[in-house]
Amino acid sequence: MVEHGAENASTGENRANPTRMLEVRNLSISYGSKSALRDVTLDVRENEIFGIIGPANSGKTSFLRALNRMDVFTPGMNVEGEVLVSGKDVRSWRNLYALRRRIGVVFPLPVGLPMSVYDNVALAPRLSGIKKKAVLDVIVEKCLQRAALWDEVKDRLHSLGSLLSGGQQQRLTIARALSQDPDLLLLDEFSIAVDPVTTMRIEDILKELRKETTIVLVTNLVQQARRLADRTAFFLMGECVEVAETEDLFAGGVQDQRTREYVEGRFG
Amino acid sequence: MFEATEINMRHRRTEVLFRLLFGMMTILLILPVALILGILIYKGAPVLSLDFLLSEPTNGMTAGGIFPALVGTIWLVAVALIASLPVGVAAALYLSEYAPNNWLTRAINLAIINLAGVPSIVHALFGVGAFVLFFKFGTSILAASLTLAIMTLPVVIVSTREAMQAVPQAFREACWNMGATRWQTIRRVVLPNSISGILTGVILEVSRTVGETAPIMFTGAAFFLPFLPQSVFDQTMAMSLHLFVISTQVPNVPEGLPYGVALVLIAMVLSMNAISIAFRMYLRNKKKW
Ligand SMILES: Nc1ncnc2c1ncn2[C@@H]1O[C@H](COP(=O)(O)OP(=O)(O)OP(=O)(O)O)[C@@H](O)[C@H]1O
Ligand SMILES: [Mg+2]
Questions:
Q1: Which domain covers residue B31, as residue numbers?
Q2: How far is CA B261 from the centre of its chain?
Q3: Cα distance between residue A167 and residue B51, in whole Å
């Protein structure tokens, strides 16, 4: 369960003949009587970075919440339609905790849990029942290294995670998400509270991670989607206006006038 | 450049006026408390001695010390604390972490708030009916302490729930997103970060019952019983009841004696508060966000 990157070998084939990691069919989300997302249908391929751009209030965060079934823990949130992860409907998971362990999430504002750096990263493995210190040590080091944080914290593993700087905490949350060895990594505007240099470092990490996992990247920076995403979806007012290869999107090859205006920075 | 206009001056004058007014109100409020403490110390202090604390009352309670009452009160409060802590924390946990936001939860919350307003004499009668008679504990420390526990439970639940709600929701969400169950989240994040607030709240609320008289009078406290209780099934003397008895029921009590007892009673409450505050500060220094 925590064999990081054990399936790397198959990565090349997946590129050539992309299988679908995530299939979303007619997804609608509402809070009480207020609709947040309407009738979204899209696919995310294995080992791609799938960007989602769109102005505030367009339903991006709600979309991510539906993917790992956080609607169950969100009072008033109502989800219709189908979400399939690796071909399996998320609602057919009887143990939704096991589903969530396969999906890593990174929030807009870094949430360093009030425990040591080590415990932050070891939490997910511990939750899934790993107790041996030797095993945990390996996972913690590996995840911190992949999140480009190891060198900065290796001497203070047992000091509080919530005392790290904002940029470090955000990499800590990435390390924490990686400790789940996720098949799917969801990032929600991760760079909001992070300086440009750290943002670049994290972007490099994501490019590396693409080899082993699938990433859905919600971003309010259009250029970030351009730098990272293989394909990009444009959300607007609860509607998925368009999904396109990122290159085409920025080369002007888009169908919808609204997408072009948003990408060119004319509104939003 | 800038000259104070008439309006500026007027604002300033009202400002000074209100500050004075509110300040005087505050002093007015503190005055009675200071007076009570002052009189108690003035009249009660001469009675106090180690011997007074550690010997039993003699001569029909007109002389001697208060040892059995002191020990009895500690028993009563300790057992009440042990009883209300787990129940209160469990109820607060449910309300804070599990309960759906529906009419039933809202009704329970309303009930808790109202229960806090039930007069203690009503609790006393409930205690007689439930613990003394129905459960056949007889008049005993157990029955009296359980009555006290029931009485404080509402405030214990409220203070515990508030301590838990002070833990940021983002921490819970981060855990849930990792695949933690609600219980795992509670155990690893909510409880470790609210335990100081929970414990100090509970200690504070339960220690208030040190001064309660009505709830223990019919359920477990005795007028005069010059032995120490051996188990929770014994009756016991208690400070609050002892004070009531020597000030109203016993003739020829020397004037200083009730003041001395009252002073010790207040000191007990204040020292419980001090312990809980010290405890909170100790834990807060280890606070993590
Ligand atoms: N827990 C909630 N309860 C009620 N309404 C909510 C909740 N979460 C989101 N909404 C509503 O759903 C709509 C979409 O919100 P969402 O957070 O998905 O937008 P977003 O695209 O992520 O915006 P942003 O770019 O500002 O993060 C908004 O109108 C919001 O008010
Ligand atoms: Mg959002």
A1: 6-47
A2: 19
A3: 64
Higher per-residue pLDDT: A173 or A112 = A173
Overall average pLDDT of the B187-205 stretch = 88
CB–CB of B181 and A97 under 8 A? yes
- Integer angstrom CA distances of residue A43 from A46, A226, B145: 10, 19, 64
Angle at A251 between CA A249 and CA A256, to 5 degrees: 45
CATH number at residue A84: 3.40.50.300
pTM of the complete model: 0.81
Q: What is the DSSP letter of B221?
A: B
Pocket of ligand 1 contains residue A56 by CB under 6 Å = yes
A55 CA: nearest ligand 1 atom: 25
d(CA B191, CA B164): 7
Chain centroid, CA A162 distance in Å: 21
Average predicted confidence (pLDDT) for chain A = 87
At B18 the pLDDT is 94
Q: Phi-psi category of A69—alpha, beta or left, where left has phi over 0 and alpha has psi -120 to 50?
A: left
Question: Looking at the structure, do residues B145 and B273 belong to the same domain, yes or no?
Answer: yes
Counting every residue written for chain A, the total comes to 268
Q: What is the mean pLDDT of residues A249-264?
A: 81
Task: Retrieve residue B96's tokens.
Answer: 């804070």
What ipTM was assigned to the predicted interfaces of this complex? Answer: 0.84
Q: Determine contact, residues B143/B219, Cβ cutoff 8 Å.
A: yes
Which of A10, A6, A30, A31 shows the shortest CA–CA distance to A21? A10
Which residue in B171, B179, B192 is closest to A124 by CB distance? B179
The two tokens of residue A171 are 């990499």
User: Does the structure show a pLDDT above 60 at A11?
Assistant: no
For residue A20, what are the domain limits?
2-263
Verify that B17 and B100 share a domain, yes or no. Answer: no
* CA distance linking residue A189 with residue A44, whole number of Å: 18
B159: distance to nearest CA of chain A, Å?
A: 22
